[in-house]
Design a protein that fits this description.
It contains 14 helices and two strands; from the N terminus they run αααααββααααααααα. By secondary structure, the protein is mainly alpha-helical. It has one domain: ABC transporter involved in vitamin B12 uptake, BtuC (Orthogonal Bundle), CATH 1.10.3470. It has a two-stranded antiparallel ribbon.
Length: 334
């Protein structure tokens, strides 16, 4: 299956299976929680406590988790394809941290937490960070993947220091909001905000998917892609912008949730193959499924208390990153 030629039928069938798994995951996750829930009563009586738990607390949160996970998964697949490095990840490249810094600054300046200013600022922060990483790592007209990764790690540390600086100078109440960004957590959201972030994620995913074939050609090298008619710099800019939009939308509502963009694309690449025309939409759906269940574990693992979902993804992603790094070192790819 991994080497199968991509046909419209395979694309539709794969997307249908993943979409079906996502629907099942959303429904199941909305029914799971520390508080008991009577599904029939929730549907039959809109004014009941069961309806409030299901439709006002759990379902919006689960939907938001699906959108955030999908955005991070698709962004990770795009960045890995563009840089030709399986270790590329929005968090490791500093993009998530840059988005968080911009979002926190705008929030501290008095912006409404549910306004469109936060996602917009986070998008601009992600884009600026990605541009800085690429510019610094660029030498003699090119930026080697390992250089981009190393510069991204440094930018990530600088962004984390900036967030801690903001945390040190604001009031205690505002510092709690900053802490939210650092941990990476989902909470009950309004359906309006879920829809707004969903639009951001849809636009970014469609933009990245449009360049799927270009990313396939870039896998053979920039020179080879250029001879086949790929405008390398234009494609690189478009992918960076689209990935930044996805990361900015995710970080704006969830903080820095790490490693989704590393784990999901890599596993799906092993299962489905490297064709980005399939891998990008599959990574969106796979990332959505992954984060829905990660957040479900975060909500239920400690009973009435909750873990930030970023803790769960870090525990899963840390060992996975070490495994990828060790394998890349053995192959001499890093």
């Amino acid at each position: 299956m991994r080497e199968a030629h991509l046909t419209p039928e395979r694309l539709v069938s794969t997307a249908s299976v993943l979409a079906g798994l996502l629907v099942v995951s959303v429904v199941a996750a909305a029914l799971i929680g520390p508080a008991p829930l009577n599904l029939w009563n929730a549907i039959a009586d809109p004014g009941s406590a069961d309806a409030a738990i299901l439709f006002r607390a759990r379902l919006p949160r689960v939907l938001m988790g699906a959108i955030v996970g999908g955005a991070l998964g698709c962004a990770g697949a795009g960045l890995q394809g563009l840089l030709g490095n399986p270790l590329a990840d929005p968090h490791l490249l500093g993009v998530s941290a840059g988005a968080a810094v911009a979002g926190v600054v705008v929030l501290m300046l008095g912006a409404d937490p549910v306004s469109s200013m936060i996602p917009l600022a986070a998008f601009m922060g992600a884009l600026a960070t990605m541009a800085a990483v690429y510019s610094i790592a660029r030498a003699e007209g090119r930026a080697a993947p390992h250089s981009i990764l190393l510069v991204g790690i440094v930018c990530n540390a600088l962004a984390a220091a900036a967030i801690m600086l903001v945390n040190a100078v604001v009031s205690y109440r505002e510092a709690q909001g900053v802490l939210f960004w650092m941990m990476g957590a989902l909470s009950a959201q309004s359906y309006a905000l879920v829809g707004a972030v969903g639009v951001y994620a849809l636009v970014g995913t469609l933009a990245l998917s449009h360049y799927g074939q270009h990313l396939n050609l870039l896998a053979a090298g920039e020179d080879s892609a250029a001879t086949l008619g790929v405008e390398v710099e234009r494609v690189r800019l478009a992918v960076f912008v689209a990935a930044s939009l996805l990361v900015g939308a995710a970080v704006a509502v969830s903080g820095m949730i790490n490693f989704v963009g590393l784990i999901v694309p890599h596993i799906l690449r092993l299962m489905l193959g490297p064709d980005h025309r399939l891998l990008l939409p599959a990574s969106f759906l796979g990332g959505a499924i992954f984060l829905v269940w990660a957040d479900t574990a975060a909500r239920t693992a400690l009973g009435p208390s909750e873990l930030p979902v970023g803790v769960v993804t870090a525990f899963l992603g840390g060992p996975f990153f070490i495994y990828l790094l060790r394998r890349s070192l053995r192959r001499g790819a890093v």
